[in-house]
Amino acid sequence: IQWEKRVRDSAQVHRPDGFSVLVTGAAGFVGTHVSLALKKRGDGVVGIDNFNTYYDPSLKKARKSLLQGRGVFIVEGDVNDARLLAKLFDVVAFTHVMHLAAQAGVRYAMENPQSYVHSNVAGLVTLLEACKSANPQPAVVWASSSSVYGLNEKSPFSEADRTDRPASLYAATKKAGEAITHTYNHIYGLSVTGLRFFTVYGPWGRPDMAYFSFTRNILQGKPITIYRGKNQVDLARDFTYIDDIVKGCVGSLDTAGKSTGSGGKKAGPAPYRVFNLGNTSPVTVPTLVSILERHLKVKAKRNVVDMPGNGDVPFTHANISSARRELGYKPTTDLQTGLKKFVKWYLSYHGYNRGNNVN
Ligand code: NAD
Ligand code: UGA
């Protein structure tokens, strides 16, 4: 009863025509920011996260405290738990599901392939089954990835480009996710929006990602490893700042409409959409490092090695004209500015400005 009340309170809407959103992966990097933004404008938000140990769970706990302080309740659980999902949909008539729970990271797929299948394929299907059977059916917005473009050589990447050459198992599970969600759309009339995020960075970010681990190592005086592509060409990423991604997510929820399907029995003309959410200006990894050095006022010990062939693509570059047109998406933060904000957060979170130089 106590649990139900907390879920219900958290889902409470505080603006006219507001949404009740179930955010999966809410204690994750993107999930935290999206949940905060929705709560701030008066939407009801309930989070679910399994707090797995892929990276430091204390960071996930800290994000959870932040969220709970703002009135967002996080249920500790797995999206593979069909009974838990059914219970949540029983307690709240969610208008939208923002599905961000996943096993992320491209290189870790070589170490633990099953974790990608568990969360990104089986977990996705379990979640979609719950959405399909809910009455009303929620509109689903979920995180795909720029990695679906794989070894695409055409630049910039447009949504209609080929996605048949994934470079990692992670990418393959995201591509599978696109096929799976599309199927639920046309069989069950579920409204689906897939967002292909391009290398997202910012405060409360992921310690497994390059900008974060480079910052840690540079501050600790440890070497960093920079991967270089074939023919000594630098790798490049269309690094995208978290606040821009959040705006794209919220814009997707706003334009997804409230699905009205009746318990999954009536297939309707609900939309299936896919959008790139990137920054449109790729930057090489050595340039990323130079910007960090400038903000940290410390020189990196650079160790440049050939790309080990473990899932990295040579470059990413988003064409965002669809998202611009249909979601009003317009990234406004360049890498210099965004990294400055990240570094400020990093130093404060790790207590550097309190004289702690060991973390
Ligand atoms: P993250 O790892 O910080 O967040 C994912 C959260 O989901 C984590 O807190 C994790 O504990 C949780 N989770 C994982 N499996 C789960 C499961 N089975 N049940 C319940 N919770 C589970 O990652 P993020 O960077 O916030 O990414 C969010 C989404 O965006 C993911 O789907 C990711 O694949 C996608 N994405 C991220 C980026 C990026 O650069 N950050 C780029 C492209 C796509
Ligand atoms: C990121 C996320 O980690 C994925 O979850 C996401 O799906 C993907 O973006 C995406 O856009 O779809 P990635 O771009 O590989 O993946 O992000 P990082 O791990 O931060 O790597 C960024 C760049 O730095 C890559 O070119 C990588 O090769 C390079 N790198 C990474 C290094 O040079 N050294 C390292 O130690 C780590």
UniProtKB/TrEMBL annotation:
Q: Does the keyword Aminoacyl-tRNA synthetase apply?
A: no
Q: Which UniProt keywords apply?
A: Isomerase, Membrane, NAD, Transmembrane, Transmembrane helix
Domain NAD-dependent epimerase/dehydratase, residue spans: 21-255
Domain of life where this protein originates: Eukaryota
Show which residues constitute the signal peptide: none
* Family the UniProt entry places it in: Belongs to the NAD(P)-dependent epimerase/dehydratase family.
List the protein's name: UDP-glucuronate 4-epimerase 1
> What is the originating organism of this protein?
Rhodamnia argentea
- Coverage span on the entire protein: 74 to 432 of 432
